[in-house]
Design brief:
2 domains, alpha+beta, Beta-lactamase Inhibitory Protein, Chain:B, domain 1
Length: 199
């Protein structure tokens, strides 16, 4: 994936336009309501870069956001997600059912969570988001845990983005208002509720 490809993705583009830039389907797709995320990956074996990962978010069928980062922690044999969420993460040919069932084995215990929280706390903004997104591949969270994680993110726009991403993995969605309540302005809180169809 070249820098030209990444810079070619613009807000408001359709999925077809994104496909034409990357000349392929995404490696993974995640979706919830009117939100969808595509993930493209490329491995660079001849350098220390490791995996180049691009995340493209769509809202109502149009590009609404994008993030790109390098992941040196993943080797080539660990390219696939071994424990995908039963309803949110899927491969292209295998879409999950709409209902979300939770497994106690996926809920992070207190010790594991404190370790994750400490790692998030002392990381850069992009690294904070990457750590949380990586954890979502294996774990579900309570609203209280989600609140503590999102509070570590400095910027409102990044907080809103993470709330929308983490919501499908919340085991007690009825309590998610404690997470949304982090946001200072009512307009931001309403924006998140609308995106998650909570109103």
């Amino acid at each position: 994936m070249s820098g030209q490809m990444i810079s070619g993705v613009q807000q408001g583009m359709t999925p077809a336009e994104v496909r034409s830039i990357f000349k392929s389907e995404p490696h993974f797709r995640r979706f919830e309501g009117n939100m969808e995320e595509w993930e493209y990956r490329k491995f660079s074996p001849l350098s220390d870069v490791g995996w180049s990962i691009i995340l493209i978010q769509f809202t109502d069928g149009r590009v609404s956001g994008m993030d790109s980062f390098k992941d040196r922690s993943m080797n080539l044999d660990n390219a696939t997600l071994t424990r995908p969420s039963p309803t949110v993460i899927s491969t292209i040919d295998n879409f999950p059912p709409v209902g979300h069932s939770f497994d106690r084995e996926r809920t992070m215990d207190g010790f594991e969570f404190r370790k994750l929280l400490d790692n998030v706390k002392y990381s850069s903004t992009n690294e904070k988001k990457r750590l949380i997104e990586t954890a979502l591949q294996q774990y579900d969270f309570t609203s209280k845990q989600a609140k503590e994680l999102v509070e570590q993110i400095s910027f409102t726009s990044d907080q809103k983005e993470m709330m929308i991403k983490i919501y499908p993995y919340i085991v007690d969605k009825q309590n998610f208002e404690v997470v949304i309540g982090i946001l200072s302005f009512g307009s931001d809180r309403e924006e998140v509720r609308k995106a998650l169809r909570l109103r």
